[in-house]
């Protein structure tokens, strides 16, 4: 019996030994397979494009600047034409040849967080500026509501009927969004804006329904506001000329005295809470220009209020019949722009040769 019991125990030990060996081999094999899968996923992640949107992969160079450090931007693009303070805490680095293209890179914490671009020769694959509304919508289906989640906080951006036509919003990745600005007269893509979620929430260009905190906007000093306003004046001037070039119109020259007239009108509208081409004392553009003593053949004025920034204001003018006419008027030769807070004024002149 002892011999039999010993044989049984020996058999059990041998079986368990084989089982342990087999399990150890299986665990090793699973570990190797798991490492191989992990390595493959890492390689795939490294080779895959960073940003995806609905049906298309964004491949143009412009998209990949989001999140890049300013050292790389400066190395590739060189020194910007200007560095303009924004009303939202970041700095615009402006690149333009003042006729064919215009790009603003929004820099915060030494990284690119937002981009606005208009003009020719921009790398925006798979889309192109000038493409039809329908072709863009096929690649990036537009929705009336676009959501964003940050931990326990949720945000829903709601598009109006006008938003859907003029400036639809598309979610590109978890925390990156794109605005498409369309020219509703030609039904073509006019410009684009990329924004990280935090920038979008600070701008609030759409109605937003949210649960959780909204990022605080900077409390600017008067001196800082003055810098923001001067920057937006130059941005409007540059973008206006790029648009005129698109429609084969001559470039406008900057007129400093007229800029002062435009600024005073913007400030007056803000300070006295009205919105009109006529001041509260009844003066119109003609009367306001008289103080400059300038000789001119004809003049025109565009005003706007409460747009989040200069590019948005210009795209708004482009889609308004009368403002568009002034913006693209062939006979105009000079432009003065005045911005006070979020009130915008353009004064155009046709000066004698």
Write structural notes for this entry.
Pfam families: CAP, CAP_assoc_N. InterPro entries: CAP_assoc, CAP_dom, CAP_sf. This is Membrane protein. It comes from Oceanobacillus indicireducens. This protein is of the alpha+beta class and 353 residues long. It is built from ten helices and 16 strands. A seven-stranded antiparallel β-sheet has the order 3-4-5-6-11-10-9. Strands 13-15-16-14 form a four-stranded mixed β-sheet. Strands 7-8-12 form a three-stranded antiparallel β-sheet, with no helix packed on it. Strand 7 and strand 8 form a beta hairpin. Helix 6 packs parallel to helix 9. The radius of gyration is 29 Å and the shape is globular.
Shape: globular
Structural class, from helix and strand content? alpha+beta
Order of helices and strands: HEEHEEEEHEEHEEEHEHEHHEHHEE
Number of helices: 10
* Average pLDDT taken over every residue: 85
What level of helicity do the residues show?
25-40%
Strand content: 25-35%
Strand count, sense and closure of the main sheet? Answer: 7 strands, antiparallel
Distance between the termini: 125 Å
Across the major sheet, the strand order is 3-4-5-6-11-10-9
- Rg from C-alpha positions? 29 Å
**Uncertain residue ranges:** 1-57
Number of strands: 16
Protein name: Membrane protein
Domain SCP: 241-347
Organism: Oceanobacillus indicireducens
Pfam families: CAP, CAP_assoc_N
């Amino acid at each position: 019996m002892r011999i039999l019991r010993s044989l049984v125990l020996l058999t059990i030990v041998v079986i368990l030994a084989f089982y342990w060996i087999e399990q150890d081999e299986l665990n090793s094999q699973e570990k190797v397979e798991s490492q191989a899968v992990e390595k493959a996923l890492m390689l795939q992640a490294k080779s895959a494009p960073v940003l995806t949107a609905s049906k298309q992969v964004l491949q143009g160079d412009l998209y990949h600047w989001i999140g890049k450090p300013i050292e790389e931007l400066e190395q590739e693009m060189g020194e910007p034409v200007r560095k303009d303070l924004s009303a939202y805490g970041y700095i615009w680095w402006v690149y333009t040849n003042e006729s064919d293209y215009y790009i603003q890179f929004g820099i915060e914490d030494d990284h690119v967080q937002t981009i606005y671009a208009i003009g020719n020769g921009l790398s925006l694959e798979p889309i192109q500026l000038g493409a039809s509304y329908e072709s863009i919508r096929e690649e990036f289906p537009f929705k009336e509501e676009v959501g964003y989640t940050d931990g326990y906080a949720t945000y829903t951006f709601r598009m109006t009927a006008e938003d859907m036509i003029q400036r639809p919003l598309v979610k590109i990745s978890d925390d990156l969004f794109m605005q498409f600005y369309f020219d509703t007269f030609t039904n073509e893509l006019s410009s684009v804006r990329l924004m990280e979620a935090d920038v979008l929430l600070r701008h609030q260009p759409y109605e937003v329904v949210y649960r959780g905190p909204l990022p605080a906007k900077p409390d600017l000093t008067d001196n800082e506001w003055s810098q923001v306003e001067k920057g937006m004046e130059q941005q409007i001037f540059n973008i206006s000329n790029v648009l005129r070039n698109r429609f084969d119109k001559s470039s406008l020259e900057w007129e400093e005295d007229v800029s002062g007239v435009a600024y005073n009108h913007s400030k007056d509208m803000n300070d006295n809470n009205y919105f009109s081409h006529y001041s509260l004392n009844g003066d119109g553009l003609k009367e306001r220009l008289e103080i400059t003593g300038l000789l001119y053949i004809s003049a025109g004025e565009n005003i706007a209020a409460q747009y989040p920034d200069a590019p948005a204001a210009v795209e708004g003018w482009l889609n308004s019949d009368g403002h568009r006419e002034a913006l693209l008027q062939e006979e105009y030769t000079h432009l003065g722009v005045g911005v006070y807070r979020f009130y915008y004024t353009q004064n155009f002149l046709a000066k004698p040769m």
